[in-house]
Amino acid sequence: MTDVLVDNKFVGTVKNPEEFVDRIISERRMGKLPLSINVRFKELTDQVIIEICSGRAVRPLIVVKEGKPMLTEKHLDQLRKNEITWSDLLKQGVIEYVDSTEEENVLVAFKEADLTEDHTHLEISPITIVGLTTSLVPFGNFNHGVRLNQGSKNQKQAIGFYVSNFFARLDMDVNLLHYPQNPIVNTAMHSILDYDKHPSGQNVVVAIMSYQGYNMEDAIVINKGSIDRGLARSTYYRPIISEELRYSGGLIDEVAVPDKEVKGYRSEHDYRFLEDDGIIYPEATVQEGDVIIGKSSPPRFLSSLDEYNLTTSSRRESSMALKHGERGVVDFVLMTENMEGNKLIQVRLRDQRIPEIGDKFTSRHGQKGVISIVVPEADIPFSASGIKPDIIFSPHGIPTRMTVSHLIELLGGKVGAMSGRFIDGTIFEGEKEANLRHELLGMGFRENGAETMYNGSTGEQYKVEIFIGNMYYLKLKHMVANKIHSRARGPIQLLTRQPTEGRAKEGGLRLGEMEKDTFVAHGASLLLKERFDADKTIVPVCEECGLIAIYDGRKEKSFCPVCGEDTEISNIEVSYAFKLILDEFKALTVYPKLKLEGKY
């Protein structure tokens, strides 16, 4: 007898497991059982496994009987005429959903031409073996699997036209590309998804060559003329939100220009953009420190006496101001109420982002890189027909990564641009490379996509042919303006006396164990010493008991809380974090005794 498991729970046994499994599958195809049920006979352990739980990934496949698919030309005609729908095909048992369990017992054909008597199912289309964003990569079947995956991930980070009503929305940290374009080389998925309604890149001319060493290590060289004409310009939007909170005792925040008596009042210069209601006006150009929404709050801690004498207790300043390194133009101001009925103010900031050194770009094949130099248009190499590339891409990114589709897209883009049509690069079903080469040859170009190029600075002809063509490039949201960070001195944490963390808080850059090792390896001992005294402090230590002593500022002398005033006390230089951990040891009733040596 064979055990039957439903969602890994034993429910009974059957005599003939193969017949039992076949019956479940045939009844599911007839519509007598739910479509989401999946079954498999596991010979190795002699078990029938039935899966009905929710949350499983299932995928549709065309049922094959005796080497012929159940989906016929008649079905396709009915679908075209809208006589039947997808759900009708499921009810008729033409298409069924298979999960990873049942897939172990089936043999799936990739294309109809591959079908044999042994096959049980057929893929609806070869494009279904990859995901949604991966299917947007043109000629993906010529790529290494890992690069295809990375190309898919990169597209999710691209800046584009994300939604058409962006001006009426207050989204957190969004970017909008100014001149998005539809790709010349596209796939079947582009039309299915209506990609032309929300594109996220631009068609550019790319030359694969070195440029004075500026594009090594994946960096790209960009043409300043292209940037001046609007290539990859985008706007960064960010909301600043504040509300009038209500507190116990009838106290409330007040949105207004704070009075000078308010605790923590900033300078008048910081409040210069605020109107009479305490809110900034649209189209004001603001920088770090400028107040966007003026607000004052009631005092935090009220004693029982203060409640009857609120006039004496001053309010505190709690305005919304721009943090360190932020800048922009006020784009939109909204005043409304939230669900609690509190006054809510939302201000949207915009900042135009022109491509600069350090901004990240990528093709759709995982070939990402940052701008290393913006070259004046006069110095950019040009072809015999006077075409100047927008981007110069390094040839060293191709051999090890094996992204052949990057090169085929360049070739296809060139054909599409010259013939004025879109090129189909659908995975496994795209236009043939040989046909593209033949078409390019017919236009008077070399069929291999290479051209003779001339040095922009000297006018000399390069002694090699350079591969040049058109390609869809994406600007990613990782821009240097959001990440640039430096600090000399600045705010420190109260507890550890070490620099605060994070760019917005003007924090320090942490030097960890590995960074320490690099300084040691370079023999940079003084630099190492300097970097590691961020929280340097001098503490008095009792030589008798080894505990940290107390310094009395009025008497200008130290004494030990355990041994009294007669013991010898030495001042030593330690990290404040070390002093803190000693105090924490004491709290755990551990005696941290310091033995001082090398005093003389």
Textual characterization of the structure:
This protein has 600 residues and is of the alpha+beta class. It folds into 5 domains: 2-124, no CATH class; 140-233 and 357-475, DNA-directed RNA polymerase, subunit 2, domain 6 (Dna-directed Rna Polymerase Ii 140kd Polypeptide, Chain: B, Domain 6, Beta Barrel), CATH 2.40.270.10; 235-353, RNA polymerase II, Rpb2 subunit, wall domain (OB fold (Dihydrolipoamide Acetyltransferase, E2P)), CATH 2.40.50.150; 485-531, Alpha-Beta Complex (DCoH-like); 536-587, DCoH-like. It contains 13 helices and 33 strands. It is extended and about 100 Å long. 27% of the residues are buried.
Topology:
Elements: E1 2-6, E2 9-14, H1 17-30, E3 38-42, E4 47-51, E5 58-65, E6 68-69, H2 73-80, H3 86-91, E7 95-99, H4 100-103, E8 108-109, E9 121-122, H5 145-156, E10 174-177, E11 185-186, H6 188-192, E12 202-208, E13 220-223, H7 224-228, E14 234-243, E15 254-255, E16 285-287, E17 291-293, E18 295-297, E19 316-317, E20 320-321, E21 327-337, E22 343-353, E23 360-362, E24 368-375, E25 382-383, E26 391-393, H8 404-419, E27 423-424, H9 433-442, E28 450-454, E29 461-475, H10 480-483, H11 513-522, H12 525-531, E30 536-542, E31 550-552, E32 557-559, E33 569-575, H13 576-587
Parallel strand pairs: 1-4, 8-9, 11-27, 12-26, 13-24
Antiparallel strand pairs: 1-2, 3-4, 5-6, 5-7, 5-9, 10-14, 12-29, 13-26, 14-22, 15-18, 16-21, 17-20, 18-19, 21-22, 23-24, 23-29, 25-28, 28-29, 30-33, 31-32
Helix pairs in contact: 8-9
